[in-house]
Write a structure and sequence with these properties.
Helices cover about 65% and strands about 15% of the residues. The chain has ten helices and eight strands. The strands form three sheets. A four-stranded antiparallel sheet has the order 2-5-7-8, with helices on one face. The protein has a two-stranded parallel sheet with strand order 1-6. Strands 3-4 form a two-stranded antiparallel ribbon. The longest helix has about 70 residues. It is elongated and about 130 Å long. The two termini are about 45 Å apart.
Length: about 450
């Protein structure tokens, strides 16, 4: 017997230790490190950084070399005499070229600015994605804790209903109540079991989502540690418009909108640059070596170094391109860029309005949660007293099952509302502080 108990205890302890205990802080650190959306944003940031740095290369000259080997046979022009000959000719030509844009309507500088703004946008986007993951993680974490408490309450309700069924069956056997009264209690229990199953499914779904946010295997067992309920009911929301202004100004989504507005202005400058002339410089150095079959037996065949020196080519060019008419292409690009710049301003204002509404809703929810928790606590207290009294009356046969079920339904609803209001207040307080730049702490 002792050996069996020992085996059971060892099995239970190994099962507990195989499950990882995670606080909200642990979940958040893991998500910020392993979340796939954040990794994608970081990769996009690296790409934007490389493109930004590479754009400085446009300020440097472009240097490239070329080499050509030509072998011909039959009738061809002799490069030495410019006469037609009928023999094999071998020629080797090499060039070193350098090009440099002296002026291109400030497009090079503006492209650097454009890539710099895109890089800053990608940096801020990382913060935006991190914030989104943090808020979603907090929602899932709170929902899981809420569902765990609701499921525990559902199980207690089912146990209570089972006891009522047993009591009702005894009364029915004694002829005190009709069989329909027993059926009503069984129906109540079936409804409670359905609620339990629904909440268990919701819990499974939220557990899958939180594991995916942290990018951990779905089969890994985790236990979420319930935070200490230190609800800050004194969050200063007396002046919501100051909070909204501060929250919007530091929000990454709003900052990205402002950066895109500046980027659109730079794109407009690039489009206007197409109206300017383009001044470029080109330098070229090259030489060639030629050999024909009829020279193989001649003593006057020039050696390689002398041929290269005699055939040396030096070219220096300055090229000026003045745009005159581009089939309305430049005009269309400028007008399009102007419209996009105007739209970027509108998008910034739209984003500001959306965020203002979002923060105002969070402030309103916080105020509501404080009052809701107070009311739910009182409602649950009196619902519990009312149910205890009616349960005793039912045992004494003073009320029927309909009245008891109604009281129990009120108790179940008030208990669910109390649990919900508690977690809503915790989440809303943390959300307001997070909007104001603090860490998301539960």
């Amino acid at each position: 017997m002792k050996k069996s108990i020992l085996i059971i205890l060892l099995t239970l302890s190994s099962s507990v230790f195989s499950q990882e205990m995670l606080t909200f802080k642990d979940c958040l650190e893991l998500a910020l490190k392993e979340n796939l959306d954040i990794k994608t944003a970081l990769n996009e940031q690296q790409i934007a950084k490389m493109q930004y740095h590479s754009s400085y290369g446009k300020l440097l000259p472009n240097l490239f070399g070329s080499f050509e080997n030509k072998n011909s046979w039959g009738r061809d022009v002799d490069p030495n005499s410019n006469l037609f000959i009928n023999t094999d000719i071998k020629s080797y030509v090499g060039y070193l070229n350098a090009t440099y844009n002296l002026f291109a309507g400030f497009n090079t500088i503006n492209n650097i600015k454009l890539n710099k703004r895109e890089y800053k946008i990608s940096q801020t986007n990382v913060q935006k994605v991190e914030n989104q993951v943090t808020i979603e993680l907090a929602e899932r974490f709170i929902t899981i804790l809420y569902l765990q408490e609701i499921i525990a309450a559902n199980q207690k309700q089912i146990e209570s209903s089972q006891k009522q069924i047993e009591m009702a069956e005894l009364k029915f056997a004694a002829g005190s109540i009709a069989e329909s009264e027993v059926f009503k209690i069984k129906s109540q229990k079936a409804s409670e079991e359905l609620n339990l199953l629904t909440n268990q499914n919701r819990l499974t779904d939220n557990m899958v989502n939180i594991k995916q946010l942290m990018n951990i295997p779905l089969d890994k067992e985790i236990i979420l540690v319930k935070p200490i309920m230190q609800l800050d009911e004194n969050v200063d929301v007396s002046n919501p418009y100051d909070l909204i202004h501060k929250a919007v100004e530091i929000n990454p989504s709003y900052n990205i909108s402002k950066m895109r507005e500046k980027k659109a202005r730079t794109a407009l400058a690039i489009a206007r640059g197409s109206r300017y002339p383009v001044l470029s410089l080109r330098a070229q150095y090259g030489s060639q070596y030629i050999k024909t079959d009829y020279q193989d037996d001649e003593e006057d065949l020039l050696p390689l170094d002398e041929q290269l020196r005699n055939n040396e080519v030096n070219i220096f060019r300055i090229n000026l391109v003045v745009p005159i008419f581009s089939q309305l292409d430049n005009r269309t690009k400028i007008k399009t860029s102007k419209t996009l710049y105007k739209q970027s301003k509108i998008d910034t204002q739209i984003k500001r309005n959306e965020l203002s509404k979002e923060v105002m809703q969070a402030i309103t929810d916080t105020k509501t949660s404080i009052k809701k928790k107070e009311a739910s606590s009182i409602a649950y207290e009196f619902s519990q007293k009312s149910y205890d009294a009616d349960a005793l009356k039912f045992e004494l046969g003073k009320i029927n099952i309909n009245e008891l079920n109604l009281t129990k339904s009120n108790l179940n609803n008030s208990e669910a509302q109390l649990i919900q209001s508690k977690y809503e207040l915790m989440y809303n307080n943390a959300l307001i502080k997070f909007y104001l730049g603090e860490k998301f702490n539960l």
